[in-house]
Amino acid sequence: MNDSILQSIKERALHQVSESNDSSTIEKIRVSFLGKKGELTSILRSMKDLPKEERPAFGQKVNMLRETIESALSEKSKTLHKIEQSARLRFEKIDVTEPAAAVPFGSMHPISLVQEELEEIFISLGFNVADGPEIELDHYNFELLNIPKDHPARDMQDSFYFNPNVLLRTHTSPVQARHMTSHKPPIRIVCPGRVYRCDEVDATHSPVFHQMEGLVVDKGIKMSDLKGTLDVFAKKLYGPETKTRFRPSYFPFTEPSAEVDLTCSMCHGKGCRVCKGTGWIEVLGCGMVNPNVLTMCGIDPNEYSGFAFGLGLDRIACIKYGVSDLRLLYENDTRFLSQF
Ligand code: PHE
Fold first, then answer.
1. Which of 83, 215, 233, 287 is the least buried, fewest Cβ under 10 Å from its Cβ?
2. In the chain, what percentage of residues exceed pLDDT 70?
3. Residue 1 has what pLDDT?
4. For 110-337, CATH number?
5. What is the per-residue pLDDT across 114-156, written as a single tens digit (0 to 9) for each?
6. Highest mean pLDDT among 50-54, 186-190, 198-202, 320-324
C-alpha cells in the first residue's frame, strides 16, 4: 500500500466528479469512494496491516484525500443544484403576458331569467315568494281548491298519479292552499315552480312546464285590486304602453274568474305572427278566491276576501325571447342555451 494508490484514487475521483452532470451521479461517486464499502474506506480499514510507525502519516494522507474528495463533491453538487434549479425555474416560468385559457361560463336558462324578473316585479309590489312540493297530495292539488273527485274540471288537468292520493302537481295553486291553511291573512305571495300534465310533446305543449301563482288575501280585497295589480305587473313586464284585457272565464277555485290578455309586446297591438294577428296575447288566469276555498283553508270569507292568478312562465319566456318552439326550452341544447 503506497501513495500511488492514493494518487490514483484522487485522480479517478476528481475526474469522475468533474465529468458528472447530475446530482444522482454525484451521490454514486460519493458512495463508491467514501461509502461504507467505498475504496477509500477499505484502505482505511486495511491500515492495520501497515507497520505501526507508518500508520499515523498514512492515516493523515487518507484523511486529507477524504476531505479533498468531499469538498470536490460538495462544490460540484452545489453547482449542479444551481443549474438544475434554474432549469426548473425556466421550465416553470409563467408568461404573464400570455392570454389566459378561456373559462367556459354557464348561462341562466330563459325560464329562470323570466322567473327571476317576475319575482322581482312582485317583490317590488310587496309580495313574498313561497314554495311547495312538486309531488303533491290530491287534497291540496284539487280538494281544497274546490275540485272534488267527481268534478269535471279534473278533466282539464290530465294528471300523473302515483296512487289515488298522491300526484305530480298539475298547477302551482296547491301552494296557495297550503299557505292559507298555515298562515293568517294578510297574505301576499307568488309561488313559482314546475308543474306536470299528461300532454304529448309538441311546439306548444310539454308534460312539464312552469307556472307562477299569485295570491292576496286580506280584508276588503276587491276585483279592482286584482285588475290594478295585474295592470301594474303587465306595464312593468312589457312597458308602460301595455294594456290588459279581462275576459270572463271559469276556474273552480275563483269566482268570478277571468282570463287576461296583454297587448302583444312584439307589435304593440297592431297584429303580428306572435299574436296571430289579434294584437293580444293570453298570459294568465285569475279571479276572486272562491269563498268555499277560503272556508276549507280555515279563513272566514265573511271577514276576508282575496284574489288569485296563475301564469305560464314558459309562454312568457317564449314571447319575450322570440322562441317559437317550446321544445327548445327542454332539450338542453347548449347552442340554444348559450344565447341567454
Ligand atoms: N291554476 C290555474 C291553472 O293552472 C290557473 C289559475 C290560478 C287560475 C289562479 C285562477 C287563479 O289553470
1. 83
2. 99
3. 55
4. 3.30.930.10
5. 999 999 999 999 999 999 999 999 999 999 999 998 888 787 7
6. 186-190
- The counts of H helices and E strands in the chain are 11, 10
Ligand 1 pocket test target in 211, 229, 313, 316 with most atoms within 8 Å of CB: 211
Residue 105 has pLDDT above 90, yes or no: no
Q: Ligand 1: does its nearest atom lie under 6 Å from the Cβ of 308?
A: yes
* CA-nearest residue, atom 9 of ligand 1: 309
Residue 330 CA to ligand 1 center (angstroms) comes to: 23
Q: Is the dihedral of CA 261, 263, 266, 267 positive or negative?
A: positive
285 lines ligand 1 (CB under 6 A): yes
Q: Report the nearest atom of ligand 1 relative to the CA of 214.
A: 9
Q: Quick one: 192 exposed, middle or buried, by C-beta within 10 A (0-12, 13-18, 19+)?
A: buried
* Whether the CB of 309 sits within 6 Å of ligand 1: yes
State in Å: Cα 251 to ligand 1 middle: 7
Q: Are 294 and 266 in contact (CB under 8 A)?
A: no
Domain boundaries, the chain: 3-92, 110-337
